[in-house]
Amino acid sequence: MGDQVSEQTTNRLSLYLRFLNELDADGVRTVSSKVLAEQFALNAALIRKDLSHFGDLGVRGVGYVVKDLRQRLRQILGLDRRLNVAIIGAGNLGFALADYPGFRQEGFRIVALFDSLPGKVGRRSRSGVLIHDSRELERVARREGITIAVIAVPAASAQMVVNTVVEAGIKAVLNFSPGALRVPPGVKLKSVDLTVSLESLSFYLASSGDGARM
Amino acid sequence: MGDQVSEQTTNRLSLYLRFLNELDADGVRTVSSKVLAEQFALNAALIRKDLSHFGDLGVRGVGYVVKDLRQRLRQILGLDRRLNVAIIGAGNLGFALADYPGFRQEGFRIVALFDSLPGKVGRRSRSGVLIHDSRELERVARREGITIAVIAVPAASAQMVVNTVVEAGIKAVLNFSPGALRVPPGVKLKSVDLTVSLESLSFYLASSGDGARM
Fold it and tell me: Could you report the predicted ipTM of this complex, rounded to two decimals?
């Protein structure tokens, strides 16, 4: 299943889920693909196609039952299980991610921070995540059942850190470090390039004739 | 121009640019759409289409001249001007973004941090960015020519902060706070939802039969 569904589709499923969470919290019971389309400025046919990958989730004339679709999306995205996450690098970014409230809302548990600086080991993030010695990664990962590692170290040490993550048996890596990283087959690497987001704003300013005052 | 080019296209242009920077640094002189396609696991026709939006950039039988295409992409993305950026919120995330090396490489200058806590005002990030009082936003924005604001405050105060950013005349906003924000027409808002990235890894683990150990 995973190979036939593009990353763009799964990214959209995440956004639908976020909106369904809000609707459910507001007591809304059903939603049409038209309403979803308006919310995300997408084509209603695209949304129906995204959801049809996973069986017939809609009800003719009604649209989607919010609670059912929400539960199904959580299953599809693998969020109906607890996912234990480690963050490698206890700098500003590592601490920010350890305490990011959005992760916990969707069932991710940040169970450990890792750093190689002795002065940091043994301390905790504001939300209470303990900083372990990086050399303990494999042992802690097995004990805590860590399945996702987040890389929040400087670019110069990122590839070395990813190698130790892979050796520790972790199969999914979220990378915030600039620059390309290599992982072996069977390990999924996703990189968040923060500069891409800023450049899309720069493009907007350039093409709208507004922008930088030199 | 801006309205006819999708955000997905501009995001791809950013990725092409990053790769062209590497090629240029390595002394590579020309590149084909086929090589670009392999690098990004995209269709060569899609890449040619992306680039054809902006005039005829390729040379038949040669592909693209790296230096020329790089310079043209920088122009298209509005990176041939200095773009001054403010970060609102001097917490862990704000500091991490202020010192993120990838921004400076592409010509973004983080010129100010803002926070409302008196104990933080007057201090500096590791790279030397000064923290101003949030009430000074409009004055500092005009003086420093700030055109992009990055929102790195807790969700509860994010909408209020965005409102003051808009009042200060800033037309482009990059939001890291979870939850939906509203901006008036003429202001471009781009939100980075860090949870979406983690969920795409969760989907991979779920669909590959690996994943959480309960």
Answer: 0.80
